[in-house]
Amino acid sequence: MSTIVCIGSGNMGAALMKGAGCAANAANGNIFFTDVDIEKARALAAGLKANVIESNIEAVKKGDFIFLAVKPQVLSQVLAEIAAAVKERLNCGDLPVFVSMAAGWSIAKIKAAISVKLPVVRIMPNTPALIGKGMIALAASPEVPAEKISELEKMLGGAGIVDILDENYMNAATGLSGSGPAFVYMFIEALADGGVRAGLPRDKALRYAAQTVFGSAAMVQETGKHPGELKDMVTSPGGTTIAGLAALEDGAFRGSVIKAVEAAWKRAGELS
Fold first, then answer.
1. β-sheet bridge partners, residue 98
2. So what's the architecture of 178-271 in CATH?
3. What digits encode the pLDDT tens for the residues 151-202?
């Protein structure tokens, strides 16, 4: 069983390691955390029945998969710290696979930071991974063996759906699925506000709004029907739904959503 080390113990790293443990259907004895705040790493590891490594350098020496779960602005410091240990493993012909989730850090940029042709996987998870319902885009460098990609897919599958794509599309995936939950949460909040305006109690309005979005998303996934077709199934001539859709069109709803994804995509490119 591969040894998995997560450098960083924030929410996303925790979610992915929790998913890795679920996917293995076993105790998390092969999962390790390290963090500049080692007590935080210990608390997280205890909760997941995982283990702790005291430093990033030890993490590189031990791991088969090393997750770089730190903020983008911190990643350059981490890579500089571990560069010598990475080169030692290269000299032994035993490089681990590095898995980065840092927005704006391309595979080429990570390799250049250490000056080694690393096996690097770049992923873009989103926050629903915290409950095992994430969307995880994955792009791998040529140095990553096919069997390692398959192992990583299985590992991450406990946190949600994993989809392999060309790295050229990663910024687009960031704008859509990485930032998208915030857009959906805003829609749920607005939908609930509409319910309150129509007279529903706040708690019921929020419950109905969230379940409506959840169920509608499941309909798209499980029926395979185009969202437009499903929309038409709800829309009766002269009925309530078409009146609401007309109001959304008056407010440029679809255009605004498209512009939101485009703005997030452009910002992801600026961070690269």
1. 66, 120
2. Orthogonal Bundle (1.10)
3. 999 999 999 999 999 999 999 999 999 999 999 999 999 999 999 999 999 9
Q: Is the pTM of this model over 0.85?
A: yes
pLDDT digit string, tens, across residues 100-133: 999 889 999 999 999 888 999 999 999 999 999 9
What residue ranges of the chain are covered by domains with CATH 3.40.50.720? Answer: 4-167
We find that the CATH architecture of domain 4-167 is 3-Layer(aba) Sandwich (3.40)
CATH code 1.10.3730.10 region(s) in the chain: 178-271
Q: What are the distances in angstroms from CA 257 to CA 23, 108, 187, 251?
A: 34, 31, 10, 11
Burial group, residue 245, by CB count within 10 angstroms (0-12, 13-18, 19+) = middle
